[in-house]
Amino acid sequence: MASASQSEATRSEAPFSATHGSSVAPDPIAVYAANIVKSYGTVRVLDDIGATLQRGSKTVICGPSGSGKSTFMRCLSGLEKRNAGTVRLLGRDVKPDGSSVRDFAGRVGMVFQSFNLFPHLTVLENLILAQTKVRKLSRRLAEEVAADYLNRVRMPGSEQRYPSQLSGGQQQRVAIARTLCMQPEIIFFDEPTSALDPEMVSEVLDIMTLLASSGITMVVVTHEMSFARRVADSVIFLDCGRIAEVSPPERFFSAPSNPRAAEFLGSLLGR
Ligand SMILES: Nc1ncnc2c1ncn2[C@@H]1O[C@H](COP(=O)(O)OP(=O)(O)OP(=O)(O)O)[C@@H](O)[C@H]1O
Ligand SMILES: [Mg+2]
Fold first, then answer.
1. Where are the domains of the chain?
2. How does DSSP classify residue 25?
3. What is the rounded end-to-end Cα distance, in angstroms, of the chain?
4. Is the pLDDT of residue 211 over 50?
5. Residue of 37, 42, 46, 70 to mutate, ligand 1, most atoms within 8 A of C-beta
6. What's the mean pLDDT in 222-240?
7. DSSP states of 36-76 as a string?
């Protein structure tokens, strides 16, 4: 269960399984963020917000366009510079200057709306690049890992295809496989299905739902309500750069306490 506030805020039979066993008890907090402020020029887009997310938790972030969801997620993942506040991932400080991404390479993954596959590389080359460069795996082992994850995202045998030869849903599943090949402990998803045609949305959400049953920590910006109800243990609603509500999904979707959240949910239903 997430808590958030303005001022504190390899292989198994299962399709996905927790991959990071250790005899040392890990920090139970996956993401800790407090008092984050982010401005573009004179515009404050994140206004003193934070969140504490337990390891293994599944958190959905939603809110109106421009409310700061992507910026918040990018600050949490260390991709974005922030003006103030503290972020810790897996017990380790994230520098405020946006330079920490490399510190967490492999342990923290990201999946974006626009897939971000390298268009000039085959699926296989996309999947093995970071494994060989960052994880320092041999090409042969990286290829085995890639084949395993392509299988898990229901894309077996697609190694030699190029991204342009795949549908949007297939590209997103490959992008998810690429992230999983690094065996991250936390994955941030920023609207992973919003660029997809409706018939492809469920194939990606199905994979994400399977993934959620592993021990991985997931933070997902999405407006897919049925997914949020099924998977999330907590929903964070952002409005104008502030956290307006944090609730379990069953409460958030049936009886949100914040009037802006109620209005927002009404607009989603009316679409
Ligand atoms: N690089 C930038 N320069 C200036 N302003 C920016 C920049 N990136 C984001 N913003 C502004 O910050 C605010 C928050 O943007 P953000 O992309 O985080 O919103 P969002 O909630 O993810 O929106 P959407 O649902 O449309 O993806 C918006 O007002 C946006 O215009
Ligand atoms: Mg966004």
1. 3-95+224-269
2. P
3. 29
4. yes
5. 70
6. 95
7. EEEEETTEEEEEEEEEEEETT-EEEEE-STTSSHHHHHHHH
* Band of pLDDT at residue 269, cut at 50, 70 and 90: confident
77 lines ligand 1 (CB under 6 A): no
Query: Rounded to an integer, what distance in angstroms lies between the CA atom of residue 198 and that of residue 203?
Result: 10
Nearest by Cα to 56 from 104, 111, 1? 1
Q: Which residue's alpha carbon is at the smallest distance from atom 25 of ligand 1?
A: 65
Whether residue 262 has its Cβ less than 6 Å from ligand 1: no
Q: In what order do the strands lie in the sheet with 58-62?
A: 108-111, 186-190, 217-221, 58-62, 234-239, 242-247
Q: 43-54 and 92-93 as β-strands: parallel, antiparallel, unpaired? A: unpaired
Q: Is the pLDDT of residue 194 over 70?
A: yes
DSSP 3-state of 92: strand
Question: 61, 71, 219: which to mutate for ligand 1, most atoms within 8 A of CB?
Answer: 71
Ligand 1 nearest atom to the CA of residue 67, by list position:
21
| Confidence bin at 2 (pLDDT 50/70/90) | low
Q: Tell whether ligand 1 has an atom less than 6 A from the beta carbon of residue 41.
A: no
CA-proximal residue: ligand 1, atom 7 (nearest): 40
Amino acid (1-letter code) at residue 13: E
What is the second-level CATH architecture of the domain 3-95+224-269? Answer: 3-Layer(aba) Sandwich (3.40)
State whether the beta carbon of 23 lies less than 6 angstroms from ligand 1: no
Angle at 95 between CA 90 and CA 98, to 5 degrees: 110
Pairing of strands 234-239, 58-62: parallel
Ligand 1: distance of its center to the CA of 218 in Å? Answer: 22
Record the pTM. 0.91
Give the confidence band of 258 by pLDDT, cuts at 50, 70, 90. Answer: very high
Q: Which residues surround ligand 2, an ion (CB under 5 A)?
A: 69-70
